[in-house]
Amino acid sequence: MDDAILFQNYSRDGETSTEIVLWTGKSTQWINFKHFFLSTLVFVGITVAYLYNGNDYILYAYIVPFFTAFWAWLYVQTTQYVLTNHRIVKKHGILNRYTFDVELYRVKDVLLIEPLFLRILGFGSIRLVTSQKTTENFTIPGIRKAKALREQIRKLVEERRINRGVREFDTN
User: Fold this and answer.
1) Could you tell me if residue 119 is inside a domain?
2) So what's the pLDDT on residue 2?
3) Is residue 53 part of a domain?
4) Transmembrane region positions (predicted)?
5) Which of 23, 46, 97, 153 could form a cystine bridge with 83, CB 3.0-4.6 A?
6) Is residue 5 a contact partner of residue 21, using CB atoms and an 8 Å limit?
7) For residue 90, how many C-alpha atoms fall within 13 Å in the half-sphere facing its CB?
8) Tens digits of per-residue pLDDT, 116-133?
């Protein structure tokens, strides 16, 4: 069996269509910079408090910044994104696993977000605005080559909409 095939979907008329994985990725740990930086500041503050006070119980406070930074790191490590020719899937969770997916024909808009800090490092984020109620804003934060991925998603969305005969009609 080919590793590129993710799922086999069965349509209403009984025909099978295979979903092909086109891209998989994870966010960069640079999106955790604020957590790591603040944890370092708190760590230094605890060290100064210990040196000033000398109370050994202050050392237990090291657990808080360490756990905060570790949890943020672990969350990014356990989050994976998969783009197929039919949908985008997000799998995440440390203790419990969650899987969200967005059918490509439900995507209304594809936004590229490049904050200065991430842009300098060569990363960007992609936000999908969808018609799906559970995931109206689906974000893929801090990925390399975000511009190319955005274009790939945009083209796939158009192809899926044409194949499914989906037209957008908003009423307000």
Assistant:
1) yes
2) 44
3) yes
4) 36-52, 58-76
5) 23
6) yes
7) 17
8) 999 999 999 999 999 888
Quote the number of domains for the chain. Answer: 2
Distance CA(74)–CA(93), nearest Å, equals: 9
Tens digits of residue pLDDT in 75-98: 999 999 999 999 999 999 999 999
Q: Domain for residue 169, yes or no?
A: no
Q: How does pLDDT run across 13-59, given as a tens digit for each residue?
A: 455 568 889 999 999 999 999 999 999 999 999 999 889 988 888 88
Q: Looking at the structure, do residues 110 and 95 belong to the same domain, yes or no?
A: yes
Asked whether residue 146 is assigned to any structural domain, the reply reads yes
Residue 78 phi, psi (nearest 5): -95, 10
Tell me, yes or no, whether 10 and 86 share the same domain.
yes
